[in-house]
Amino acid sequence: MKDVHHAAILVILLSNAVKAGTILLYPTIGEIFAERAGVLNLGVEGMMIIGAFFGFIVAHVSHNPYLGFLAGVLAGGLVSLIHAFISITLRGNQIVSGLALTIFGAGFTTFYGQKWINMNLDTAFHTFNIPILSKIPIIGAILFNQDIIVYISYILTFVMWFVLFKTSVGINLRAVGENAKASNAMGISVYKVRYLWTFFGGIMAGAGGAYLTIGYAPFWLDGITAGRGWIAIALVIFAMWDPIKAIFGAYLFGSINALQFQLQAAGTTIPSAILNMLPYLVTFIVIVISSIIVKARHIQPPKELGIPYSREEK
Amino acid sequence: MLYFEKKENISNKSKLIISLVSLLIGIFFGGIAIAVVGINPFAVYKSLFTNAFGSWYSFSETLVAATPLLLITSGLILVFRMSVWNIGAYGQYIMGAIFSSYFAIFMPPDLSKPLMLSLMFFGGLLGGALWALIPAVLKVFWEVNEVISTLLLNYIALYVLKFLMYGSWRNPTSYGFPLSKPFPESAQLPIIFQHTRVSLGFVFALLAVIAVWFVISKTKFGYEIKVIGNNPTTAKYAGISVGKNIITAMMISGALAGLAGMVQVSGIIHFLQIKLNANYGYTSIIVAWVSYLNPFLSFMSSILFGGLESGGYSIQISMRVSYGIVGLIESIALFSIVGAQIFLNYRLRWKK
């Protein structure tokens, strides 16, 4: 009897880990593509919180979580265009522009979010079983008894991996990130490619943020993303710019989140400051280890990552 | 069509103009944001300005906010000039506050004031420098991206502070609030202007900005920083030890951020708590950038942004305008200055 009970707790824990991981998976994949095209966007945290905010408000007002999610996705995409304009068209410093985007997101949502603080959503994504797959013992209950946003993330990860490595779209975008000048000579529009994938990064960050406030923690708090955008940027390195590897990173952090929650709910004696520190501490350790591996194996980030391109200069 | 042509000489005058215009763009869009919620932006800005510069006392509060900004920015100028992105002033500030508070909380309170303040001063420098040493060493030896490592260390520092404040450093008589016991008189920085909160820390800040100006323009270290900033590979071939310089500059930058934390607890708050205004660490990045990494421009920017911070704090109460407006204005000003860089480096031309 006791084993059954433990197994049930484990299933709940891991099922929540997948949900928490989904919040990170979307932005990580988005940032992988922006970086592959040569645009470093450190504004993920800002785009996420904007997506979280608009997602929450629209879901709250319309009582429709799907509409809210779309609003969050769109809002994330729109603010990413500020970064695109500054770093691609105006060739501004990408690091500073990205930081500005993060500060913008925090300022914007603090300013307009006041009256929404501590409000709850009365609507949620529908959870449904995938036939056959959900019957697999344990794994079925963890992976295939989720909502549509989680299922989309599974499919998207594989589709985007395929796009990146197996299609001409992927070859072009990687070429732009490796050598913009040569790509331009081959007839690829560098600006267009960079705009497109920066926008994609924004959409995905918005999706992660909206999933946070609609699917995972259905209420509004100031600064609700709490650094998840930065963890996503760290996961890009952990994943070595590969969407499939991003899954493992995202779910690892999802597990830490879920564990933290479960331990707190169970009334652990571990101080909450230590529990809350865990995701950042583990990310820190992971990023150090993966950087060492990246260096040892000579894996290169996209060669022209963060370097603006100008057509006029020869 | 329109295109950009590379410009050779950039005058300081055009830098100053662009800085000011960027701030105005931030204020303009901030005004729109305020109008959207149905508040008169002109009234808000008038109140903000009065609360920042309208009287000697309000101006002194602006100086109080400018002090940590100036201290942190001075250090950031050094590292940013090398294109080393220390985003961790937030955490280094917290660590400086923790290290210096240790003496105020645990040393006998009858220690002589000069000794106590010296211990706290060096504690602040050390706390910040050590916290900056971690990402510096990781960057130099294992190429760990410092943007991410310093940012994560910010969150870790915040939770270290929370751990202490909810644990053994909490004052047993604070009714469960996360506050340390109040600092003894010997642990409080002297006030330099009567009836204000401007402490000796403001003098530290002035000395720091002068020292950084001196280092940049008059020393070999300053010269090497410039070479590394232009091109680290060239610097290496010129026999400059890039790693050593990065570590040194990061530690100085961390130390100054730590000192800002010490000034805040010892000069302003007089106990340790979770809310230390560590966000100065992020605002300083904006100040440094808006000042084009120039120490003297950074002095002026620190006062302007100090005014924005202290005025923004006041309108929160007097006009019920959320403090978020400050972040909005600052970020839009930062976008503008980064975007405007192209008009410094290039000239807009028309070609058929």
Structure, explained:
The complex is a heterodimer of chains A (314) and B (352). By secondary structure, chain A is mainly α. Chain A has a single domain (2-296), classed as Orthogonal Bundle (ABC transporter involved in vitamin B12 uptake, BtuC). Chain A is built from twelve helices and two strands. In chain A, helix 1 crosses helix 11 (243-265) and helix 2 (44-62) packs across helix 9. The longest helix of chain A has 35 residues, at 2-36. The radius of gyration of chain A is 20 Å and the shape is globular. Chain B has one domain (40-320): Orthogonal Bundle (ABC transporter involved in vitamin B12 uptake, BtuC). Chain B has helices spanning 12-36, 41-53, 56-81, 89-106, 113-142, 146-165, 201-218, 220-230, 232-237, 242-269, 280-290, 295-318, 324-345; strands at residues 2-6, 346-350. In chain B, helix 2 (41-53) crosses helix 12 (295-318), helix 3 packs across helix 12 and helix 4 packs across helix 11 (280-290). Chain B is globular and about 75 Å long. The model of chain B has no long low-confidence stretch (mean pLDDT 91). The chains are: A mainly alpha (314), B mainly alpha (352).
Number of helices of chain A: 12
| Main structural class of chain B | mainly alpha
Give the spatial strand order of the biggest sheet of chain B.
1-2
Computed CA radius of gyration of chain A, to the nearest angstrom: 20 Å
> What is the CATH first-level class name of chain B?
Mainly Alpha
CATH architecture descriptor text of chain A: Orthogonal Bundle
Largest interface: A-B, 50 and 49 residues
The fold-level CATH name of chain B is ABC transporter involved in vitamin B12 uptake, BtuC
Helix content of chain A: over 70%
How much of the sequence of chain B is in beta strands? under 5%
Tell me which oligomeric state these chains represent. Answer: heterodimer
How many separate domains of chain B?
1
Q: Looking at the structure, what is the overall shape of chain B?
A: globular
* Average pLDDT level of chain B: 91
Estimated structural class of chain A: mainly alpha
CATH architecture annotation name of chain B = Orthogonal Bundle
Q: Return the CATH topology of chain A.
A: ABC transporter involved in vitamin B12 uptake, BtuC
Number of domains of chain A: 1
